[in-house]
Write a sequence for this structure.
């Protein structure tokens, strides 16, 4: 489930949204109001229930073979997403939807998102994302399940891989 050229996506468990209005998210680190979306490359970061903590890592041109083998695993592809055991049922039963938007009203925000400062309407009805495990498998993304995310996160952030952590405040304590 990724956007087509000229589009960005917003993932939600709410299939009833007809108009997205900029707002300041409760977890925002900036005071500006935005509508948030992601592009093709960062869509997999959001193939989870909203509150699910996840640590993700993927190879980039500067990634060392040692780091790839240590973090992702030898012969295990180029990307790994890690979650905690306590979230497996939520991932299995989540009903996630993708909203498609034209990319034009959105501007890049950091290295991970796109934001609009004006209200936007989806290009059509939200699309059910389907089975989140199958989505990962079909994209060749390793989904790793751990008792606790923190040792993995510490190894990832000290490596040469690119990484992202979302909702880590919902992870089990260190």
């Amino acid at each position: 489930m990724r956007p087509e050229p000229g589009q960005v996506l917003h993932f939600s468990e709410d299939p009833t949204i007809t108009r997205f209005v900029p707002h300041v998210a409760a977890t925002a680190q900036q005071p500006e109001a935005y509508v948030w979306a992601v592009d093709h490359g960062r869509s997999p970061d959001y193939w989870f229930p909203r509150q699910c903590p996840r640590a993700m890592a993927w190879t980039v041109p500067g990634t060392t073979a040692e780091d790839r083998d240590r973090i992702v695993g030898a012969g295990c592809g180029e990307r790994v997403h890690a979650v905690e055991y306590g979230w497996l049922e939520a991932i299995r039963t989540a009903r996630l939807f993708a909203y498609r938007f034209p990319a034009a009203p959105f501007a890049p925000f950091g290295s991970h998102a796109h934001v609009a400062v004006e209200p936007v309407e989806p290009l059509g009805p939200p699309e059910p994302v389907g089975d989140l495990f199958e989505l990962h498998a079909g994209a060749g993304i390793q989904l790793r399940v751990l008792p606790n995310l923190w040792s993995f996160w510490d190894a990832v952030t000290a490596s040469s891989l690119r990484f992202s952590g979302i909702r880590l405040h919902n992870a089990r304590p260190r």
Q: What stands out?
A: Residues 65-73 form the longest helix (9 residues).
